[in-house]
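Structure (tokenized):
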């Protein structure tokens, strides 16, 4: 049974940055549910994939140094540990991972044409398609079997999980390995990051829920690595159950134990998270109001999808934030979804004339604080809502 635990209100589509402010932008109701049987957490409203992942999708993974380093490190680990003959990446975006591999040993699947074009032009075979059974069959016909399938921050974006895993098992060799990486529900609840939920994030996985899904496809997790990426992610190493060559590591039972100890299998924990999110909203509004009462200026840093959830849930608009800065070309000179806050091209001059900066990209706090030493040294302050709204 699916039980409701948080209403994040009427929301515009994240990543739908508009050139001209439009009050009638498409909106949907963002409500969160916990399935007491499967333990899966999901949003209720499903926006068609073709609308979300179109030919102008602005998000570029390579923009952040943290991500580029993380994917480079992973590529080296994959080569060392698994030495795959052939790797398939689902949701290859602008090639942040692909680029670390030999062009003949890797293919990508990326539905957004603007992104698929980037890697195709670099010579990486990229299927400009959605990952589904049809795409999987096409790939199998050409490449036969694949010994490593990788997907980061993508599986949680696809509504039909049954089809996703059926399509994966269709191409994966008997001894093949599937690695998936997504934000961790445990971290999300611990940090009260309700902003991990928006139209693209249909699910936020716990390892308990993922294990239940994989079980249906005779797949099992044999290792888990926790990463600081995106505020806390889990990298799951998965194999077919019949493959006895790889032993199941203790990391798996340890992670499951941690999740059970926290109560991720119990509805009351989600109810509490819902209550905490409301408290977080009220506290954040108070911080913004107090700053504005003193006639100080606030700007936003990182026009993230997550920030869209925050701004629209907390009703924070141009009355509080003068503008956002972002290094992503396709977000610049557009408006934050659902608000009149403009996104400007990042320039340190813009940083140095404000009093406060709201961290939209709080997940890159380390990278950003390193870059903005000058702002911090002159007494500039950051505002974050993680784990509780505060001024740093
Ligand atoms: O799952 C998803 C993740 C991987 O990416 C997608 N559904 C959408 C997107 O979510 P997001 O927008 O919340 O992702 P990020 O990676 O937190 O976005 C960071 C944003 O901040 C980018 O627009 C780039 C920007 N940025 C910046 O302007 N200066 C980032 C850094 C580190 C910087 O120094
Ligand atoms: N893997 C990258 C990008 C994550 S953003 C990273 O971790 O940084 C999510 C990506 O998934 C986008 O590039 C989006 O176009 C892609 N995507 C969404 N639905 C998909 C589907 N059905 N099949 C394959 N990719 C999909």
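Design, position by position:
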């Amino acid at each position: 049974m699916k039980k409701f635990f948080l209403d994040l209100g009427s929301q515009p589509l994240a990543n739908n940055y508009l050139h001209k402010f439009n009050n009638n932008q498409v909106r949907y109701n963002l409500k969160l549910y916990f399935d007491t049987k499967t333990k899966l957490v999901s949003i209720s409203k499903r926006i068609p994939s073709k609308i979300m992942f179109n030919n102008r999708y602005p998000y570029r993974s390579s923009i952040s140094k943290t991500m580029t380093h993380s994917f480079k490190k992973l590529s080296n680990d994959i080569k060392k540990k698994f030495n795959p003959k052939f790797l398939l990446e689902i949701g290859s975006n602008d090639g942040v991972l692909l680029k670390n591999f030999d062009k003949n040993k890797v293919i990508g699947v990326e539905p957004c044409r603007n992104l698929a074009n980037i890697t195709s032009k670099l010579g990486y075979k990229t299927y400009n398609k959605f990952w589904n059974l049809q795409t999987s069959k096409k790939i199998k016909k050409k490449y036969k079997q694949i010994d490593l399938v990788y997907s980061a921050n993508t599986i949680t974006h696809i509504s039909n999980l049954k089809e996703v895993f059926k399509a994966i098992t269709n191409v994966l060799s008997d001894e093949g390995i599937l690695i998936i990486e997504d934000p961790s529900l445990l971290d999300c609840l611990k940090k009260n990051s309700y902003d991990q939920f928006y139209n693209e994030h249909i699910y936020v996985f716990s390892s308990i829920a993922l294990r239940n899904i994989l079980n249906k496809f005779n797949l099992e997790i044999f290792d888990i690595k926790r990463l600081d990426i995106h505020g806390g992610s889990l990298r799951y190493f998965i194999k077919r159950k019949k493959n006895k060559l790889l032993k199941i590591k203790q990391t798996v039972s340890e992670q499951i134990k941690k999740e059970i100890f926290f109560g991720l299998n119990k509805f009351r924990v989600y109810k509490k998270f819902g209550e905490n999110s409301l408290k977080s909203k009220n506290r954040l509004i108070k911080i913004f109001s107090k700053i504005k009462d003193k006639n100080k200026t606030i700007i936003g840093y990182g026009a993230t999808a997550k920030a869209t959830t925050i701004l629209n849930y907390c009703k924070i608009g141009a009355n509080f934030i003068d503008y956002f800065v972002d290094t992503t070309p396709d977000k610049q000179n557009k408006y934050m979804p659902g608000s009149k806050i403009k996104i400007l091209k990042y320039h340190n001059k813009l940083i140095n004339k404000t009093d406060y900066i709201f961290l939209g990209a709080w997940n890159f706090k380390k990278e950003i604080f390193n870059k903005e030493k000058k702002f911090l040294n002159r007494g500039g302050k950051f505002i974050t809502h993680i784990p509780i709204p505060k001024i740093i």
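Reviewer-requested clarification: Residues 59, 63-64, 153, 200, 302-306, 326-328, 331, 346, 361, 363-364, 367-368, 371 surround DWN (ligand 1) (CB under 6 Å). The radius of gyration is 21 Å.
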